[in-house]
Design goal:
The chain is an alpha/beta fold and 319 residues long. Helices cover 37% and strands 13% of the residues. It has one domain: TIM Barrel. An 8-stranded parallel beta barrel has the order 3-4-5-6-7-8-9-10, surrounded by 5 helices. A two-stranded antiparallel sheet has the order 1-2. Helix 1 packs parallel to helix 9 and helix 7 runs antiparallel to helix 10.
Amino acid sequence: MELRILGTSDIKISPIIMGTWQAGKDMWVGIDDTVSIRAIKAAYDAGITTFDTAEVYGNGHSEKIVGNALQNVRDRVVIATKVFSNHLQYKKVIDACHGSLKNLNTDYIDLYQIHWPPGSFGAKKVPLEETMRAMTDLKTQGKIRAIGVSNFSRSQLEDAATYGRIDSLQPPYSLFWRKVETDAMPYCLENNITLLAYSSMAQGLLTGKFGPDHTFAKGDHRFRNKLFQPENYERVQKALDRLRPIATANHIVLAQLALAWVISQPGTCAIAGARNPEQAVQNAAAANVRLSEEDIEAIDDIGKMVTDQLDDNPVMWEW
């Protein structure tokens, strides 16, 4: 898998990144730690070198799973994690980083990200200057190698960048959710900030595995996703029907088509979760897909069947 440079750092990342929200178990159902570890190892064996987690995923549980799975190859992988919105005061950022280092069983974090803007989820609205001072101090100390932000708008990203170098933005971005294209993406391209697209398969929608009558098991957070709401879900199903022939013509499955489209966008890598080793290997193979310009244009048009009908709210969930 051909690696890419993260922002202006010296860190090389895989275009397909394994996301590990599900490994934290909280807000997911049917997750087994042993299978999660096997999936992470399978992703690495298939060429994925970059793994994304967060302290809030299962209150550190995901970080522990990632640290366990990658302990024997730590010097050959890139680990990204995030500090949550309730830990953005200077000392709390430092303490949260130390907690993540312990969970991950490592002495440095490659990419440390502010998970949500200050004030999110009812947390105290800490000045970005204070949070970024902690982040830059951690970088100076060698405890982190690069700084990123997640779920930031363009204006929030510009504000953060006045206090230190930002090398990545992690937004929700998929064929069915493209808000970042008209907000922060142009700024990122102008300033060499890598986009790390999360929910790049629209939380499983773009795998095609959710039929018209799908219902979620109790405890699965995805029932709050706007794309799964009735007014959007019907359009999603029609779009999927038009995407399937393109995937078939390229000898790939829908999930790989979705990931290949994301990583074909300028300056963008795709974060993809996997519940088991088979999914991890399938995701990794998307890095080798080369879509034609005609296919990309057709896929764009199909995606707009869904995105043109969405409102301007950049948050994907009805929390």
